[in-house]
């Protein structure tokens, strides 16, 4: 059998009847301990040796412990001074005894706190006694310190606790690896083991000298784990958002953009959302304190929106017959949906009047004061969109979604009737999660009402939607918790490996 040099050396130095520590093998083979360990593991893999581990305890003296080996323990020194002062017969004054003991500073406290505990005598109201039967020569702590300083070992392990507690000795644990020959190892050794000269890398010298023809090359280990290099990568949500934009542009849509903090007028009033709608109260809304109001709103539009709210539109319009406050409409908040962009564009304030047929979209952030959970974030992306054309029907709406989601491999969209103050009819969209099988809500949609469109000056049909980008990402990547995708709990491992399927 042929083996690399270090393995042959370790194999020959190891024993079959006793485990040899790596350090001993290192000394015997003249190899560094880490080379011996490496070789031992290679040999173990081939069944030639067994490698075992044991934990060794080494006890050593601390600096303080070492001082007492020379000077004696403070309490012993106090006892000796007390004896000299005759305290074995009559109590002696403390101050005098301490003075003659030569103890100073912290050592005095140490002496006093151990004196009575160890039976050297008593300390009471400024006087000290010495027990005539006490024997400093038999002090177990002093003896333990001596033997640690000498042989470095201890006979009684119960003293060790006390020494550790006093900070006089320390215990350190170290792992010792031991190597023992297996039966197979012995057999191979008897059959003869030779050193294999293997070369790991071809060098210019090997080639020019022609030596390469005679050497033995090490085999490639194609199963060895290679180091994974984690470079930066595009975040799945960013990837998703880019992909969505591509798809929508491909379907003939143009992109909208606009302010993240906007007037309630654009966020709610233009959408025929009554001012006392629950979603408009504080719990759902991130209000801005400054600035308090938006100034530039198209005047005629403000009036028309107010009229729609109060009286409705058309001949038999009804409206809400509830108060409508212009100041309330001019207050600012972070947009709770990106439909504020649609109202701005439909009103003609952004790029001028838009003629049918027209299609617009945005993939932008919306903000809601929701409770964070597996499907809700406080900041999330909406895929907003609308189509303006003559005679749109629910079939157009459904067909558009089917076409859109099919681009992401999602073919089982479900529609459920819904209610929005600004659309009639309205539909919620659901998709099936690829791993949990759960039906999750992925969007909201409908055909804009007269009450919304007329004040904006639009006189043909508009179908519209707001879809959740994160929910689409959950369906496309299999993420089960939206918090895995972004925020402080984001799952980096998942984000590194997630693939957007389409
Ligand atoms: N604004 C709605 C989505 C929507 C937009 C346009 C029409 C219908 C619904 C939401 O955030 O849920």
Automatic annotation (TrEMBL):
The keyword Metal-binding applies. Its main location: cytoplasm. Gene3D superfamilies: Bira Bifunctional Protein, Domain 2 (3.30.930.10), Winged helix-like DNA-binding domain superfamily/Winged helix DNA-binding domain (1.10.10.10). Residues 244-490 form the Aminoacyl-transfer RNA synthetases class-II family profile domain. Its EC number is 6.1.1.20. It comes from the Archaea. One of its GO terms (molecular function) is tRNA binding. Its cofactor is Mg(2+). One of its GO terms (cellular component) is cytoplasm. Keywords: Aminoacyl-tRNA synthetase, ATP-binding, Cytoplasm, Ligase, Magnesium, Metal-binding, Nucleotide-binding, Protein biosynthesis. SUPFAM superfamilies: Class II aaRS and biotin synthetases, Winged helix' DNA-binding domain. Mg(2+) binds at residue 424. Binds 2 magnesium ions per tetramer. InterPro entries: aa-tRNA-synth_II, aa-tRNA-synth_II/BPL/LPL, Phe-tRNA-synth_IIc_asu, Phe_tRNA_ligase_alpha_bac/arc, Phenylalanyl-tRNA_Synthase, WH-like_DNA-bd_sf, WH_DNA-bd_sf. The keyword Ligase applies. One of its GO terms (biological process) is phenylalanyl-tRNA aminoacylation. HAMAP family: Phe_tRNA_synth_alpha2. Tetramer of two alpha and two beta subunits. Belongs to the class-II aminoacyl-tRNA synthetase family. Phe-tRNA synthetase alpha subunit type 2 subfamily. This is Phenylalanine--tRNA ligase alpha subunit. It comes from Natronococcus amylolyticus DSM 10524.
């Amino acid at each position: 059998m042929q083996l690399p040099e270090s393995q042959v050396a370790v194999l020959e130095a190891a024993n079959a009847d006793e485990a040899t520590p790596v350090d001993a093998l290192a000394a015997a083979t003249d190899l560094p301990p880490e080379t011996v360990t490496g070789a031992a593991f290679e040999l173990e893999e081939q069944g030639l040796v067994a490698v075992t581990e044991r934990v060794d305890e080494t006890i050593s003296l601390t600096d303080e412990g070492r001082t007492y080996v020379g000077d004696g323990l403070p309490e012993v020194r106090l006892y000796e001074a007390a004896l000299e002062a005759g305290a074995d017969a009559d109590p002696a004054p403390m101050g005098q005894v301490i003075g003659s003991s030569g103890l100073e500073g912290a050592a005095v406290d140490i002496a006093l706190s151990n004196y009575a505990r160890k039976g050297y005598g008593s300390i009471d109201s400024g006087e000290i006694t010495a027990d005539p039967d006490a024997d400093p020569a038999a002090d177990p702590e002093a003896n333990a310190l001596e033997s640690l300083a000498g042989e470095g070992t201890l006979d009684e392990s119960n003293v060790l606790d006390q020494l550790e507690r006093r900070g006089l000795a320390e215990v350190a644990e170290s792992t010792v690896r031991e190597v023992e020959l297996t039966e197979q190892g012995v057999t191979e050794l008897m059959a003869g083991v030779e050193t294999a000269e293997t070369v790991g890398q071809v060098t210019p010298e090997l080639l020019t000298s022609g030596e390469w023809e005679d050497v033995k090359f090490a085999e490639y280990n194609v199963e060895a784990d290679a180091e994974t290099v984690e470079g930066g990568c595009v975040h799945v949500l960013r990837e998703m958002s880019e992909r969505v934009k591509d798809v929508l542009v491909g379907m003939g849509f143009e992109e909208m953009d606009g302010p993240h903090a906007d007037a309630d007028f654009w966020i709610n009033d233009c959408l025929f959302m009554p001012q006392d709608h629950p979603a408009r109260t504080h719990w759902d809304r991130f209000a801005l304190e400054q600035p308090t109001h938006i100034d530039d709103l198209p005047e005629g539009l403000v009036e028309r929106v107010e009229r729609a709210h109060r009286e409705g539109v058309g001949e038999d319009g009804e409206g809400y017959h509830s108060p409508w406050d212009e100041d309330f409409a001019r207050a600012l908040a972070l947009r709770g949906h990106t439909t504020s962009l649609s109202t701005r564009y439909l009103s003609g304030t952004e790029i001028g009047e838009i003629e049918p047929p027209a299609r617009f979209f945005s993939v932008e952030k919306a903000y809601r004061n929701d409770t964070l959970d597996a499907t809700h974030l406080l900041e999330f992306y909406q895929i907003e969109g609308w189509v303006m054309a003559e005679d749109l029907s629910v079939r157009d709406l459904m067909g558009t979604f089917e076409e859109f989601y099919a681009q992401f491999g999602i073919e089982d969209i479900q529609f459920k009737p819904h209610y929005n103050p600004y659309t009639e009819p309205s539909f919620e969209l659901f998709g099936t999660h690829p791993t949990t099988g759960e039906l999750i809500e992925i969007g909201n949609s409908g055909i804009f009402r007269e009450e919304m469109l007329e004040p904006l000056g639009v006189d043909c049909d508009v179908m519209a939607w707001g879809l959740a980008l994160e929910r689409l990402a959950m369906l496309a990547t299999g993420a089960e918790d939206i918090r895995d995708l972004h925020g402080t709990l984001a799952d980096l491992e998942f984000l590194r490996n997630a693939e957007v399927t389409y």
